[in-house]
Write the structure tokens for this entry.
Amino acid sequence: MGLNNRRFNITKLTVISAILVVIGDLIDLFVIYQEYHDNQNNKAGNK
């Protein structure tokens, strides 16, 4: 039974890690979008 419990813990840690990676990627995407949007606004304001 100990092996089953270890396998479950590893699976749980893998899922948590995958969720954290996805959250980090979404944060990166939002930052990049904000920089792009700010850059477009600056270009529009300079014309």
User: Anything to note?
Assistant: The chain is about 95% helix and 0% strand. The longest helix spans residues 2-46. The CA atoms of residues 7 and 40 lie 49 Å apart.
